[in-house]
């Protein structure tokens, strides 16, 4: 538990029980755990360690309250059983890694890749950057890994160091293909072992997310709540505090960078119901396949920031992601958003080498500004532009990460201005709605103008909603910004039959209004989509704005966008004029004939 964040106003101590229980605590979800938080008197640090030592416990840290630690489910994303894998490779196959340099391999689309070659040509390999992989362990006996392995056991986590080596592909679903992303000089990678048990607790998650925050630059997570299309879940109190401490205090105050797989629930699920992927503190990464379409397992939501790649839809044995496998094998069939998140971590490592001073928010801004539409496309969700001209997609976020573009911009990047938070307005009284009648609510705001926390340029926007319905899965929620950008906050989830719990102060988040001026009227639309008639009541909608008071580059983007828009309108007018002249000429010629 070393490196666990200290809470400034805490008066108690947390004792992690990793031995037999002094007394059994039965978790609310029916899982018996051996984790308990214990509060002792102030200034009792020596006594706390003495008690822990006497009973064989491992560590003590400050904490605000006492909690029984209930067990809950957390699942790996993109995991497949070893018996399902038929292709075994023992040699690195660089030419098979189409997501690094795509020449059309495996029936893919040429040019659809992460543009890492440009970053390599600029001399960046990710050297000096530390990436922490939060997963269920590492196959350290693999021949691609063994010579670079040193292990140190620290509390719950197995800390594993990897230095410069080729083929750094860790476990089948932990890390895939940093080999290509960092070429011959890889960043330092630490494996945080935390999913190797049948349940999860708040302590385990919090200690993993805050493990060595002054050493680890980037945390990569390819797991989350169950992707079954009916779960609404997110981080508990300790984990939330650990993440907040990470972005505020990690990396010497520049902030820990959390990269999260958006989820594998497909069209049946919505990643805004995953409190990790939809957190402002994480960079949520979705995936595209090798021809630019969305993968069938991809979840869509307005909190996704960008995309990388996973496998192809076609039954080409080389269309997946190349990675090490267990027992010394390799595979070309890795898939899922669990493949996408580590790719993003590799790209971010290149950017951090180019500019080690980047903050966690700088990395989000760089992702927004340099990610590209490229050839990504979806049959349902079209590409749109927000109020300042930034192009986005409900599935792909701001597009596929561009390593070359990111490192070039990172080299000259100036840290973004201070971030402010504004409660823009709140509607608390109950409003009923039913099938066939959409509920439309509006909040008019000045975005705290005239106050110290005025928000002029948006980053994240949260709609904190409390709503119940006869069938939660049929609820559909949209929100439109004053500049006209519509965000789908919640899509229909056909497998969600909940009629009791609903959403209780759930923070639906959107990144689609990035850079916009939030002043004006925000509109929330709540309705039902489904075959059966449903009834519901919205009890609260609170609008939370997060952003800056100055952002010069946004001003330039707006000017460029407006210039292009004016030019396109001029061209449209010229085309209309040409067409009118042509019609007139044809008409005259017809009459003369």
Automatic annotation (TrEMBL):
This is Neuroendocrine convertase 2. GO terms for molecular function: serine-type endopeptidase activity. Residues 1-27 form the signal peptide. PROSITE patterns: P_HOMO_B (PS51829), SUBTILASE (PS51892), SUBTILASE_ASP (PS00136), SUBTILASE_SER (PS00138). The keyword Chloroplast does not apply. One of its GO terms (cellular component) is extracellular space. The active site is at residues 135, 163, 338. Belongs to the peptidase S8 family. Serine endopeptidase which is involved in the processing of hormone and other protein precursors at sites comprised of pairs of basic amino acid residues. Responsible for the release of glucagon from proglucagon in pancreatic A cells. GO terms for biological process: peptide hormone processing. Residues 415-551 form the P/Homo B domain. It is an enzyme of class 3 (hydrolase). Its EC number is 3.4.21.94. InterPro entries: Galactose-bd-like_sf, Kexin/furin, P_dom, Peptidase_S8/S53_dom, Peptidase_S8/S53_dom_sf, Peptidase_S8_Asp-AS, Peptidase_S8_Ser-AS, Peptidase_S8_subtilisin-rel. It comes from Fundulus heteroclitus (Killifish). Pfam families: P_proprotein (PF01483), Peptidase_S8 (PF00082). It catalyses: Release of protein hormones and neuropeptides from their precursors, generally by hydrolysis of -Lys-Arg-|- bonds. Keywords: Cleavage on pair of basic residues, Hydrolase, Protease, Serine protease, Signal.
């Amino acid at each position: 538990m070393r490196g666990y964040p200290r809470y400034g106003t805490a008066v108690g101590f947390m004792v992690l029980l990793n031995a037999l229980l002094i007394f059994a605590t039965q978790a609310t979800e029916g899982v018996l755990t051996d984790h308990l938080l214990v509060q002792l008197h102030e200034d009792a640090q020596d006594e706390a360690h003495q008690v822990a030592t006497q009973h064989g416990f491992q560590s003590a840290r400050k904490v605000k309250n006492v909690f029984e630690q209930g067990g809950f489910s957390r699942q790996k994303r993109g995991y497949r059983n070893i018996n399902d894998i038929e292709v075994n490779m023992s040699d690195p196959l660089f030419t098979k890694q189409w997501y690094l340099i795509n020449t059309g391999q495996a029936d893919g689309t040429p040019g659809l890749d992460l543009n890492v070659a440009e970053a390599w040509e600029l001399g960046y390999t990710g050297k000096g950057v530390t990436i922490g992989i939060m997963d269920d362990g590492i196959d350290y006996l693999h021949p691609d890994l063994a010579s670079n392995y040193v292990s140190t056991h620290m509390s719950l986590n197995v800390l594993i160091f990897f230095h410069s080596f080729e083929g750094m592909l860790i476990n089948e679903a932990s890390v895939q293909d940093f080999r290509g992303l960092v070429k011959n000089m890889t960043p330092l990678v630490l494996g945080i072992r935390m999913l190797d048990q049948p349940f999860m607790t708040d302590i385990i998650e919090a200690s993993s997310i805050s493990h060595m925050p002054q050493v680890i630059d980037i945390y990569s997570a390819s797991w989350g709540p169950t992707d079954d299309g009916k779960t609404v879940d997110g981080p508990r109190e300790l984990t939330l505090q650990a993440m907040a401490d990470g972005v505020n205090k990690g990396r010497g105050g520049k902030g820990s960078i959390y990269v999260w797989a958006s989820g594998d629930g497909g069209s049946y699920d919505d990643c805004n119901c995953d409190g990790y992927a939809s957190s402002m503190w994480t960079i949520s990464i979705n995936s595209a396949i090798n021809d630019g379409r969305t993968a069938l397992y991809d979840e869509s939501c307005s909190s996704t920031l960008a995309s990388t790649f996973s496998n192809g839809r076609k039954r080409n044995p080389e269309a997946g992601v190349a990675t090490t496998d267990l027992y010394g094998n390799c595979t070309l069939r890795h898939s899922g958003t669990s493949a996408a998140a580590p790719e993003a971590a590799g790209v971010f490592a290149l950017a951090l080498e180019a500019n080690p001073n980047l903050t966690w928010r700088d990395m989000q801004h760089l992702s927004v500004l340099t990610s590209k539409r490229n050839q990504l496309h979806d049959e349902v969700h079209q590409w749109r532009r927000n109020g300042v001209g930034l192009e986005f997609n409900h599935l792909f976020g701001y597009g596929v990460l561009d390593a070359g573009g990111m490192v070039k911009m990172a080299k000259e990047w100036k840290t973004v201005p201070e971030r402010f938070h504004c409660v823009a307005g709140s509607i608390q009284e109950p409003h009923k709605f039913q099938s066939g009648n959409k509920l439309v609510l509006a909040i008019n705001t000045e975005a705290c103008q005239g106050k110290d926390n005025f928000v002029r340029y948006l980053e994240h926007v949260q709609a904190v909603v409390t709503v119940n319905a006869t069938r939660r899965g049929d609820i559909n929620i949209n929100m439109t910004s004053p500049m006209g950008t519509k965000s789908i906050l919640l899509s229909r989830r056909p497998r969600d039959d909940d009629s009791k719990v609903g959403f209780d102060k759930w923070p639906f988040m959107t990144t689609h209004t990035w850079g916009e001026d939030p002043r004006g009227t925000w509109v929330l639309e709540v309705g039902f989509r489904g075959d059966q008639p449903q009834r519901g009541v919205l009890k609260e909608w609170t609008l939370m704005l997060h952003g800056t008071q100055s952002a010069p580059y946004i001003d330039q983007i707006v000017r460029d966008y407006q210039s292009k828009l004016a030019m396109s309108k001029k061209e449209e007018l010229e085309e209309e004029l040409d067409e009118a002249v042509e019609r007139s000429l044809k008409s005259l010629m017809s009459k003369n004939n």
